[in-house]
Structure formats: structure tokens, C-alpha cells
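[step 3/7] fold_predict: job queued, chain A
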Amino acid sequence: MKIKDDPIGQAISDFYESGKTPDIMVQTNYTEDETIPPSWFFRNENEMPPLEKKALALSKGKILDVGAAAGSHALALQNRGLDVTALEKSELAATVMKKRGVEKVACTDIFHYHENRYDTILVLMNGAGIGETLPGLRKLLLHLGSLLQPNGRILMDSSDIIYLLQEDDGSLWVDLSNDSYYGEMEYELTYKDHFSKFKWLFVDFGTLSAIAAGAGFSCTLVAEGEHYDYLVEIKVIN
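[step 4/7] structure written:
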């Protein structure tokens, strides 16, 4: 990844070094002028939302934390004495994790990772988004399944963003020119002179469950958040 194309990694690095940075600016095909404070990637376990705390509590055995960012989840698990590997494709963020004391860091894209097998794979912070699209989500699940130990499970969270399409009268706004799934969002992030553009998937539970079943997995709803977010446990059907 080119440094100039890594706004999140650069923001994480700057915040680690100085403790104070500007926010990451966010534009999407549904929203505009939103921000992400870099401090969010450094929250401790007490500051995490309930779904993330639930996922950490359920994590056991050998653990892979996918998209680990600044390593908050990995550090929380490591502090409990658990064997966790933090996977992050941003070299800047991976360097920060090592400086923060994360013992096992893999700096690569998840689709290029084949090194070990795990009892628990965490894919948090709207982790289903890594798939980018519905077909991409199926590809992601199949790859993660190949990294599981027998009887291992994937703990993944996502959100149903149907609320963004709701009009004041309760009806749904539909873009007839776009036949893509409504949760396939397009993002543009800007931090200082760093910019990236990518797709991110937000998927409703019913659709996620159907995709999982079609790929040979069970998908169990573990917990629901306060704003259309939820956590699932995904296992290979034997």
C-alpha cells in the first residue's frame, strides 16, 4: 500500500506519536461530511460497544483478529493471556500495533493470508464490509472458513443500513438506476494529503445468513446492538 493511499494508517500513526490529530473525513454515496476521530482506533475494552465486548468474551483458543487497525481487540485478548494474531494490511498501522505491544502481527491482506488455522476468527468494526459486495462476502467467508480449525467459528459484525433509505413518511427511497444491493457503499476517506476510495459492505442479517448457508456455513445471531447492528457466529457445516 502506498503511504499516500493510507489515510487510516497515517491517522493511526500520527495519533500514536502525538496524541492529537485532525479527524479523518468521510464521504459516501449515501452520506457526506462525516468524520472518524483517530482516537476511536485506540479505545480500551471499557470504551468498546457491547457487540465488540461480547465478541471478545466469546473468543477462545487460537485467535485471528482480521483488520486489527491499532490493535485494540488484540491487546484486550492478549492481556487475558490468549493466543491472538493481529492481521492488518496497513504497514503504518501494523507498525503501531507492534509498538503498542501486540506480540503477533501479520501485515498482509486477508485474502493473501494462509499461514495458520484458528479456533476463533474475529472480523469486527462492521467486519463484513471487507467483502465489499455480496459476491465478495461469499468469497470472504469461504477464505475465512479455510483458516478455521475443526469446530472453529467466525465472529463477525455488520449493520443493516436500510434506515438510510427511509423517507419521513416511512417509505423507502429506491435508486432505480442502480441494481446493486443497497448495502454496497462507496467510500472516500481523506486525512491530510492522504486519500483512498473503496467499497464497503453493510449487510442485513437475513442476507448474510442466506449467503453463509449457500457457502456451507451455519450463521447464528448472537447479539443485536442499538442501531441496526448485530453480531453473528459462523461455523462450517460438517
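[step 5/7] annotate
Residues 3-236 form a domain with the Rossmann fold fold (CATH 3.40.50.150).
The CA atoms of residues 26 and 189 lie 5 Å apart.
exit 0
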